[in-house]
C-alpha cells in the first residue's frame, strides 16, 4: 500500500537525515522534491501547496538548524503534517442512535460499496457482537441485490429482501420497520451505484437518505482513482451530509493520493480502508500509523520525541566533541550513557520502537537483567575516584576491593563492569575512527 509514494518520500528525506547543518536553501530543495513526490502520488495540487507551505513554515519557524539533528527534525515535521492532513486520530463508527442505528453507504458504481457493506456487517456482527441487518436499495441492478443476498448469507447476517420493481424509499422504510421488529442493533443500507455524478440519481439518494435518517452516511470510493476520488467525494458531500469516507482497494494503490487529499478537501474523515477483496479485507484508518508506514519508520518518531525531551543534548555534544578530538571514552562517559538509556525507559522500551526490532517478540522482562546489571555498574562507577574513572587501568586488587565495598557489590561485579566498559570503549573507538559514532550520537538527539 502506497509503496511508490513511500519510496519517493523516503528517498528524498533520507538525504536530509544525516545532515548536520540545514539552511533555508536545502530545506527548500528537499521540499521541492517532496512536492514532486506528492504530485506524482496524485495528491491534489491545493493540498500539496498548503502541505509544503506548512512544513516549510514550521521548519523555519522552529529553527531546525539549532537542533542536534536538523535533518531528523525536518522529517519529524513532515510526519506530523502528514498525520494532520489525514485527520490526526482515528474516527470510529458512531452508532449512537436509537436502534436500529442506520448506516447508509453511497458511492460510484464499482467503488466497492456492496463488498464494503458485507465487510462492515461482518465486522460489527462477528467482532462487536451486534445484531446486524443489511438491505439493498439498488433497484437498477438486480445483480447487486443478489450479490448482497449471497454475501449476507455467507457471513450469517440478516438480509432484508428487496427487488427491482420497488421504490428505493419504500425499501428503506420497510427495512427500518423490519429491523426494529427484529430488534436489530444496526441496519446497513446499500444504495444504487452510478457511473458518474448525475442529477437524477443524486435526487434519489437524497430521498433515500431522508427516509433512512442514518447516523452514519459513508462514502465509499476507490483509492486507485486518485484525484477523481476526491472530486466525487466532494460532489457527494455537497449532496449528502457525509459523516465519513471508506477508501477501498488500497491494497492495489501504490500512490496514495486519495488518502492524503480527501480529508483536507472534504473535511470528512476516512474511517476505514479496504485492503483486499475478502470479507476481512478492511481496517480502521489510523492517520499516524499510515504516515509511519508511508515514511517507513516503525515508531521511531516516538523515540525521537522521547530523545528530544530526555537526552541531555549538552552532554551528547560534549562526548561527540571529545571523541572527535581523539580523546578516549572513559568510565564517566559510560555512566552517562547508561543514565541516558535509563531516562528513555531502558533497553526494552528503546528496542520496541526501532523498526524491525518491535517484532522480535522478546518475552516480557527479557532485557530487565541487562538493565539491572547496568544500574549496578552505575553504583560501582560512583564509588570510584575521578582519577580511576579517567584511567581505569589504575584499578587493581586493593582498589577493586574498596570499590566493591563502597558500592555494596562483589569484586566480580567490579570486574564485570570493567570488562563491559572495555568492550564499549573498543566499540566507540572503532566507530569513532569511521565517523559512524558521530552519526549515531547525532541520531540520538
Ligand atoms: P459496488 O458497485 O460499489 O457495489 O462495487 P463492488 O462491491 O461490487 O466491488 C467492485 C469490485 O471491487 C469487486 O470485484 C470487489 O471484489 C472489488 N473490491 C472491493 N473492495 C476492494 C478492496 O478493498 N480491495 C480489492 N482488491 N478489491 C476490492
From TrEMBL:
GTP binds at residues 107-114, 190-194, 248-251. GO terms for molecular function: 7S RNA binding; GTP binding; GTPase activity. Residues 297-324 form a coiled coil. Belongs to the GTP-binding SRP family. SRP54 subfamily. HAMAP family: SRP54. NCBIfam families: ffh. Involved in targeting and insertion of nascent membrane proteins into the cytoplasmic membrane. Binds to the hydrophobic signal sequence of the ribosome-nascent chain (RNC) as it emerges from the ribosomes. The SRP-RNC complex is then targeted to the cytoplasmic membrane where it interacts with the SRP receptor FtsY. Interaction with FtsY leads to the transfer of the RNC complex to the Sec translocase for insertion into the membrane, the hydrolysis of GTP by both Ffh and FtsY, and the dissociation of the SRP-FtsY complex into the individual components. This is Signal recognition particle protein. The lineage of its organism: Bacteria, Pseudomonadati, Pseudomonadota, Gammaproteobacteria, Arenicellales.
Amino acid at each position: 500500500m502506497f509503496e511508490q509514494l513511500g519510496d519517493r518520500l523516503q528517498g528524498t528525506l533520507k538525504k536530509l537525515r544525516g545532515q548536520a547543518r540545514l539552511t533555508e536553501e536545502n530545506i527548500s530543495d528537499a521540499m521541492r522534491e517532496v512536492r514532486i513526490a506528492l504530485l506524482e502520488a496524485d495528491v491534489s495540487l491545493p493540498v500539496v501547496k498548503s502541505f509544503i507551505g506548512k512544513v516549510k513554515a514550521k521548519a523555519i519557524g522552529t529553527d531546525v538548524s539549532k537542533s542536534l539533528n536538523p535533518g531528523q527534525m525536518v522529517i519529524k515535521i513532515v510526519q506530523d503534517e502528514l498525520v494532520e492532513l489525514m485527520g490526526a486520530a482515528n474516527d470510529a463508527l458512531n452508532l449512537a442512535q436509537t436502534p436500529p442505528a442506520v448506516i447508509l453507504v453511497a458511492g460510484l458504481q464499482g467503488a466497492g460499496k456492496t463488498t464494503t457493506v458485507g465487510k462492515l456487517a461482518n465486522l460489527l456482527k462477528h467482532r462487536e457482537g451486534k445484531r446486524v441487518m443489511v438491505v439493498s436499495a439498488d433497484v437498477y441492478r438486480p445483480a447487486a441485490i443478489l450479490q448482497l443476498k449471497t454475501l449476507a448469507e455467507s457471513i450469517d447476517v440478516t438480509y432484508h429482501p428487496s427487488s427491482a420493481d420497488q421504490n428505493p424509499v419504500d425499501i428503506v422504510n420497510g427495512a427500518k420497520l423490519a429491523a426494529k421488529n427484529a430488534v436489530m442493533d444496526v441496519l446497513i443500507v446499500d444504495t444504487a451505484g452510478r457511473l458518474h455524478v448525475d442529477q437524477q440519481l443524486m435526487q434519489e439518494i437524497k430521498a433515500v437518505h431522508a427516509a433512512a435518517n442514518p447516523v452514519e452516511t459513508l462514502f465509499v470510493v476507490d483509492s486507485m482513482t486518485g484525484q477523481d476520488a476526491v472530486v466525487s467525494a466532494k460532489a457527494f458531500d455537497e449532496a449528502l451530509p457525509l459523516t465519513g469516507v471508506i477508501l477501498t482497494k488500497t491494497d492495489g494503490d501504490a500512490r496514495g493520493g486519495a488518502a492524503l487529499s480527501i480529508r483536507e478537501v472534504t473535511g470528512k474523515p476516512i474511517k476505514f480502508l479496504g485492503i483486499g477483496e475478502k470479507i476481512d479485507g478492511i481496517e480502521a484508518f489510523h492517520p499516524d500509523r499510515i504516515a509511519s508506514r508511508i515514511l517507513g519508520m516503525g515508531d521511531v518518531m516516538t523515540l525521537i520525541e522521547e530523545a528530544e525531551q530526555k537526552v541531555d543534548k549538552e552532554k551528547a555534544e560534549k562526548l561527540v566533541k571529545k571523541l572527535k578530538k581523539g580523546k578516549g571514552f572513559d568510565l564517566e562517559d559510560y555512566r552517562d550513557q547508561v543514565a541516558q538509556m535509563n531516562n528513555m525507559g531502558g533497553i526494552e522500551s528503546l528496542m520496541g520502537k526501532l523498526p524491525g526490532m518491535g517484532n522480535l517478540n522478546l518475552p516480557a522482562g527479557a532485557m530487565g537483567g541487562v538493565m539491572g546489571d547496568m544500574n549496578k555498574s552505575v553504583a560501582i562507577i560512583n564509588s570510584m575516584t575521578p582519577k580511576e574513572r579517567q584511567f581505569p587501568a589504575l584499578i587493581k586488587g586493593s582498589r577493586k576491593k574498596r570499590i566493591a565495598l563502597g558500592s555494596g557489590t562483589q569484586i566480580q561485579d567490579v570486574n564485570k563492569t570493567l570488562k563491559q566498559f572495555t568492550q564499549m570503549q573498543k566499540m566507540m573507538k572503532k566507530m569513532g575512527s569511521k565517523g559512524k559514532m558521530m552519526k549515531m550520537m547525532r541520531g540520538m538527539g
